[in-house]
């Protein structure tokens, strides 16, 4: 049964990735507003309802990724004696170090799309806030430091991340993992 469950989850992950890959391709080629969910379903060779099962809204086709939960787990797993910024840097290096060149290129394309479509910027900002709150809670739990102190630190770190995402969208040659690590080091 475990092998069957594993295969089922693998098939779901592949279907989800294919839907998102085709959606991003169509958004690049035709524009976000001009592309319908039906077109995405056809390109991914799935039913229209299958797209919505994996991505409840059209915006989710762009915004959704699996990075945050992996990052949160990595941050929680850092040695307890690491100061917050060092823990953030180590978790980022671990997660971003697992990205292939194709993963980074797809991330860049998603970032450019998010920044160019107002509806996507709004949804992405909400997601960014949720991520920042979760990171703040993890760091507060790890350190036992006062919440206002951790919020200030997290706000500064996320300001750096946002600035680098904007720069990366303009300059795809920017080595994002290296730039993030160097910029976060300045907070240490």
Number of helices: 10
Q: Which outline best applies?
A: globular
CATH homology group of the largest domain = Tetracycline Repressor, domain 2
Unreliable sequence segments = none
* Count of folded domains: 2
The termini sit apart by 48 Å
CATH topology of the largest domain, by name, is Tetracycline Repressor, domain 2
Radius of gyration: 18 Å
The number of strands is 0
Main β-sheet: number of strands, strand sense, barrel status? none
Please identify the top-level CATH class of the largest domain. Answer: Mainly Alpha
Mean pLDDT: 92
Strand share of the residues? under 5%
The helix-strand sequence is HHHHHHHHHH
Structural class: mainly alpha
Q: Helical proportion?
A: over 70%
Which CATH architecture of the largest domain would you pick? Answer: Orthogonal Bundle
Keywords: DNA-binding, Transcription, Transcription regulation
Protein name: TetR family transcriptional regulator
DNA-binding region: 36-55
GO molecular function: DNA-binding transcription factor activity; transcription cis-regulatory region binding
What this model shows, in words?
The protein has 188 residues and is mostly helical. It contains 10 helices and no strands. The chain has helices spanning 2-30, 37-44, 48-54, 60-63, 67-77, 84-97, 101-116, 118-143, 147-170, 176-185. α7 (101-116) packs across α9 and α9 runs antiparallel to α10. The mean pLDDT is 92.
Short description:
With 188 residues, this protein is mainly alpha-helical. The chain has helices at 2-30, 37-44, 48-54, 60-63, 67-77, 84-97, 101-116, 118-143, 147-170, 176-185.
């Amino acid at each position: 049964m475990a092998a069957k469950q594993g295969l089922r989850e693998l098939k779901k992950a592949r279907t989800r990735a294919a839907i998102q890959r085709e959606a991003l391709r169509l958004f690049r080629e035709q524009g976000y507003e001009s592309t319908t969910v039906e077109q995405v379903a056809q390109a991914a060779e799935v039913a229209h309802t299958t797209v919505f099962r994996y991505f409840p809204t059209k915006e989710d086709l762009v915004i959704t990724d699996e990075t945050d939960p992996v990052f949160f787990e990595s941050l929680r797993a850092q040695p307890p004696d690491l100061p917050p910024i060092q823990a953030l840097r180590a978790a980022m290096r671990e997660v971003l170090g697992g990205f292939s060149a194709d993963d980074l290129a797809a991330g860049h394309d998603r970032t450019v799309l998010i920044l160019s479509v107002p509806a996507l910027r709004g949804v992405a900002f909400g997601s960014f806030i949720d991520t920042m709150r979760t990171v703040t809670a993890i760091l507060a739990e790890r350190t036992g430091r006062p919440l206002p102190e951790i919020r200030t630190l997290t706000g500064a770190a996320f300001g750096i991340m946002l600035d680098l995402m904007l720069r990366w969208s303009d300059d795809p040659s920017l080595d994002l993992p290296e730039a993030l690590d160097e910029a976060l080091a300045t907070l240490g």
